[in-house]
Design goal:
This protein is α+β, with helices and mostly antiparallel strands. The protein folds into two domains: about 180 residues, no CATH class; about 180 residues, no CATH class. The chain is about 45% helix and about 15% strand. The chain contains 16 helices and ten strands. The strands form two sheets. An eight-stranded mixed sheet has the order 2-5-4-3-1-8-6-7. Strand 6 and strand 7 form a beta hairpin. The protein is globular and about 60 Å long.
Length: about 400
Amino acid sequence: MPSPHPRHLVTVWNPATADDAMEAHLELLLEQVTRYRRGEVGEDDVYVWWGKIRSPNRMQPLVHLEEILSLDEEELAGDLEPDVVTEEVHLYLTDYRSLYVAHVGEITADDVRMEDDDTTAHVPSMYQPDVQCDCWFRLFDVRRLVQDDTLLVVQELRKLRNTRYHDKPVSIYGGMHELPLIVRRPDGVRWFDPTTRERVTDGQFWAEVDSELSGVGEVMASLRMDVLGERTWERLVPAARLFIASAEKVYRDHRNDPAFDFSPVIVNICKAYETHLAEAFSSVRDRLPDDIWYVNVNGSSRHLIDDGPFTVGQVSYVLKNDEALLLALSNVLSNGHWVSGVLPHVLFNLSKYRNPGAHTERLTREVARRLRNEQLGVGYAGMLKELGEVG
């Protein structure tokens, strides 16, 4: 059985070369994704190696290397059984400005550069022969959680507990020694859940999504500091932030073009609701009887967490028609009165545009402006502020 709070890792890469280092790994990972899309390799062949570079001034091995390697034997062992749902092992990567999380598939002290050509093809060229590494991490996918926002990096890292320092919250101020840190995350979040990825990203790897949604860092900062406020922004889950910022960037880039199809604005806002609510429901799963999570969706009984995530239209239908579930959620979720009184109607209103917008019909600037303003609170009491209080 997987641990209820599996161990993860946190490391820092050199801020002076951070952009080049991350770009080198993501570029190679995306090359493997492209080959997979062409049918040249299987999905298991999509990965990149990340090396824990050893300082030339340190002669001795890492004091906790054996504990790091034990993650490969314990937490990752379940991955050998495809029919067993295991917890994910994560490698959190930061340069203090930005924060990424990677899905770890293997940890080894062997120098992967000495392996066969198929293995070395997954090693970025930045690892020259004179670069020594304590260990290597095989990364299946990488997600960007924070971009160019040190304060938000601090907040996100505090959600991790340093197992070698009395389970204290991780702090970048004096707490980043003996890297990589070995940490636990009490909420047990699964950043790379395949069902969520299939629904939210249409099956794309998270690295693909981030590359397509580049340039949103400035918009994220604007939303956090000038529109939604720091509290709301920090309470929204990272994927929801990304989708909200992507919607806002599209809107800002094209708001002077009345002929533009504004569908991506509404679709991304809907995805923000879908991802945030999926995590909010998961966070209170154990506080309700399991049978209450089975709901009627499109005429069949489905588990609102295990069989999700669901679209805004499906969640709206469930909340409007399952009074027992709605009452239970309003009692265990924060901001419960809004969940029971307003949320179903907000979701229903968005759903009227989500499906047509995602498929065939062009959404006008006027519709996008009205819905965007309602969500952000431009001339209204913003709905996204209320969403951020749900969890």
